[in-house]
Automatic annotation (TrEMBL):
Organism: Desulforamulus aeronauticus DSM 10349
Protein name per the record: Peptide deformylase
PANTHER family listed in its UniProt record: PEPTIDE DEFORMYLASE
Reaction equation(s) it catalyzes: N-terminal N-formyl-L-methionyl-[peptide] + H2O = N-terminal L-methionyl-[peptide] + formate
Gene: def
Cofactor note: Binds 1 Fe(2+) ion.
Stated role: Removes the formyl group from the N-terminal Met of newly synthesized proteins. Requires at least a dipeptide for an efficient rate of reaction. N-terminal L-methionine is a prerequisite for activity but the enzyme has broad specificity at other positions.
Known cofactor(s): Fe(2+)
Family: Belongs to the polypeptide deformylase family.
Pfam families reported in the protein's UniProt record: Pep_deformylase
Amino acid sequence: MAVYKIVEIGDEVLREKAKPVKEITPNIIKLLDNMADTMYEANGVGLAAPQIGVSKRVIVIDVGEGLVELINPEIVEASGNVVDTEGCLSVPGMIGEVARADKLVVKGINRQGKAVTYQAKGWLARAFQHEIDHLEGVVFVDRAANLRKAE
Ligand code: NI
């Protein structure tokens, strides 16, 4: 088990377009394990690899429905629109309202290198969109209305 330091807004890596993973190597497995440890340690519901300084297309999510790990995630369908409050481990202490699709189909590969598809709605759909944004160099503050300090 290892916990990475989470980089904060202002760090260039959060603004880069992350690179696809070409091959599942032991380093990618270790990255997934340590990203989950880091997310849970920080009481987060999601983490993208750029947030620990690794510009690769890898995300982990747990909105209370179990751990989701996804490599090279891609949103292939999106519908609905819902506004809710978000924060981000890379923007400590700040929250804001973000409009997101309510239902998604997300594809990617798992740690075995197999293609997987998630049908997501609600918080899981929101978390996918937030984390996939990180892979594009987008941080929630770019999309947020009423950005403010969390109470
Ligand atoms: Ni975030």
